[in-house]
Every structure is written in structure tokens, then in C-alpha cells.
Design brief:
322 residues, alpha/beta, TIM Barrel, eight-stranded parallel sheet
């Protein structure tokens, strides 16, 4: 049965919640009451589901006992855990790639234990010192995967395929998050990478917002959507206002609610639904009260964009819903 506006799983990102508490303790080691507080805030903001963004809790580093406690805490508050986003742990990081691969396997196992449907991985790496100085980190260039480096590309395919096979065994999907200057940094690269991996358990997280916020020329967002949506199995959605003056080489972008930014999510979802997209959606927003803006984004999707009826004609898709 196809999802409708009423039952589509839309999760809140946890970008606003730090991974270290006021006492300098990692949230993984915190009392369950601290977890409960975050889940309660998300629930009270209007969400039924949470994306476990691992800049907060890192499920892959929780013991079996604490993982069970974590799952029970979420259930007691009344929020579901359909997805984990494991960020800045690239499996082809020259220094930490093997450790990141092991962490990614642990995250898949944690996802299965928590009942998650999907884990989003990326190839973006830690913010540089220069990025950390900026109001918005995306205004300066960060890590770049080596262009035309067949050995590194093949390593990405090999390690992500390894994760995909593990995910299949666990009944979980892997989604690869689009991000600038990586092998997931353009529509064509993302599609080529997923096709190279060649597993039904591995698809694309078409986070087009990551691309349109850059202070430089960008791909047309609609072309990105049209190329990647046939492979989409999870979706981070956010938007940015953008201005360009090409003659002066001037580009600027800043966060905006979904309905006010450059991307028309009405059109983006039209493309997604025509390609059979039935994945979990995660609403994100940087700056200000990001949780409240994320819920504004959720209401916009449910009230204005998502289909009211399960009879909506879905197109052919290479993605399976679990």
C-alpha cells in the first residue's frame, strides 16, 4: 500500500542537539533521562519519528544493553526510529577509512536492533579548520574526493558494496547522501556509484539542499532530481534562498523553510512519486530554532505536497519499501 500524507514517515533531524553535554560527557554515556528529554522535545514539536543523526547519539557505539535502553526510552516517549544518518565517516578517508568502515557495520547492526528501515551514509569528511570559522560552513570548500582516481573510486564501490550486502542480511536499506566535492557530489556521479555497487539494498539520498547552498555555480536542482529519483530510497529535505550574479561571480545562499527556498518541493515530489519513491523523509534546517522550522517543513509536506489518497498512480521504481 502506498503511503499517503497522513501516514508517510517524516522524521526530525537532530542537528540542533549536541553530542557532548554541559559536563563534557558524550551523550552515548549520558543517563537515559537526557535521551528522553531530546525525544520529548521532538515529540512535542509535532513529530512521530526521529532520524538518529549521529552527531548526537552514535547508535553504532552503544553496547547491546544501552541500545536496548535507548530503544525503550524512545518507545516510552512515543517516537519511532525509522532511520539513522551516519555523517562525516567516509569509508575512503585516507586516515580513518578502515575505522569508519567498521563503525558503519556497527551502525547497520544497531539499526537492525532498533528496528530502523534505513541508514544514510556519505563520503563527506570532517569539517576543516577554515570551515569551522564560518557562520555557514558550506561557504568555503572542504574535503574533496580525488577526481579521476580509479583506485579510490573502486575502493568506494568495494566498501559501500560490502555495507550493502551486510544491510541485505539485516533487512535494512543503505542510502548514500549527496554531498559536494565527493563521489556523490553530482547527479551523474551518484548514479554511477550506485550502479557500480549494483545492489537493490543501496540507493541514493538525494539531499539536493547540500548542493544548492554552495557559493559557486551549481547543477540545476530539477535535473539533479530527475536523474537521482529513480534510485532514491531515503530523502533529507531542506531548502535555501539563493541569489546569483554570474557577471560578478557572486553567489549567496542561506537556509529557508521548504516552501520559500529555491527548490520547488511540489515539483521535486512530483518527480519522486512518478519514480515510485516510497522512502522515509527527514526534514532538516540549519540555524535558529531548527526543530520548529523542521516541523513547519513537515506540515507543509503533509498539508500541501504529499498525496491524500493511496490511489495515487506511482511510476516504476528500482527502490523497494521495507
Amino acid at each position: 500500500m502506498a503511503y499517503t500524507a497522513d501516514n508517510w514517515p517524516i522524521a526530525a533531524a537532530l542537528l540542533q542537539f549536541p553530542g557532548i553535554d554541559a559536563q563534557g560527557q558524550h551523550i552515548n554515556d549520558a543517563d537515559a533521562q537526557q535521551w528522553r528529554s531530546v525525544f520529548a522535545q521532538v515529540h512535542d514539536a509535532g513529530f512521530r519519528d526521529v532520524d538518529l543523526t549521529d552527531s548526537w547519539v552514535k547508535p553504532g557505539d552503544l553496547s547491546a544493553e544501552r541500545l536496548d535502553e535507548f530503544k525503550k526510552t524512545a518507545a516510552e516517549v512515543g517516537v519511532g526510529l525509522p532511520a539513522i544518518s551516519a555523517i562525516r565517516r567516509s569509508v575512503i578517508d585516507a586516515e580513518h577509512g578502515e575505522d569508519n568502515l567498521a563503525y558503519s557495520h556497527r551502525t547497520l547492526e544497531a539499526a537492525a536492533a532498533l528496528g530502523c528501515k534505513v541508514v544514510s551514509f556519505g563520503l563527506h569528511q570532517a569539517l576543516t579548520a577554515e570551515q569551522k570559522k564560518q557562520l555557514w560552513f558550506w561557504t568555503v570548500k572542504g574535503h574533496q574526493d580525488p577526481a579521476n582516481d580509479r583506485a579510490t573510486w573502486n575502493l568506494a564501490v568495494e566498501r559501500l558494496r560490502e555495507l550493502g550486502r551486510h544491510a541485505e542480511e539485516l533487512g535494512v536499506l543503505v542510502s548514500l547522501e549527496m554531498y559536494e566535492d565527493t563521489y556523490l557530489g553530482t547527479a551523474d556521479l551518484a548514479v554511477a556509484l550506485v550502479e557500480g555497487i549494483g545492489l537493490p539494498s543501496v540507493g541514493i539520498n538525494p539531499d539536493i539542499g547540500n548542493l544548492i547552498r554552495l557559493h559557486r555555480p551549481i547543477e540545476a536542482w530539477q535535473e539533479v532530481a530527475e536523474k537521482t529519483m529513480p534510485y532514491a530510497n531515503y530523502w533529507h529535505v531542506k531548502n535555501y534562498s539563493r541569489d546569483e550574479d554570474i557577471a560578478r561571480d557572486y553567489y549567496v545562499a542561506m537556509p529557508a523553510p521548504l516552501e520559500y527556498g529555491l527548490i520547488s518541493y511540489r515539483k521535486a515530489f512530483e518527480i519522486a512519486l512518478a519514480n515510485g519513491f516510497q522512502g522515509v523523509v527527514c526534514t532538516e534546517h540549519y540555524g535558529g530554532d531548527g526543530l520548529s522550522v523542521s516541523n513547519t517543513n513537515q506540515r507543509y509536506l503533509r498539508e500541501q505536497i504529499l498525496p491524500r489518497s493511496a490511489d495515487y498512480a506511482l511510476g516504476e521504481s528500482r527502490v523497494r519499501q521495507i
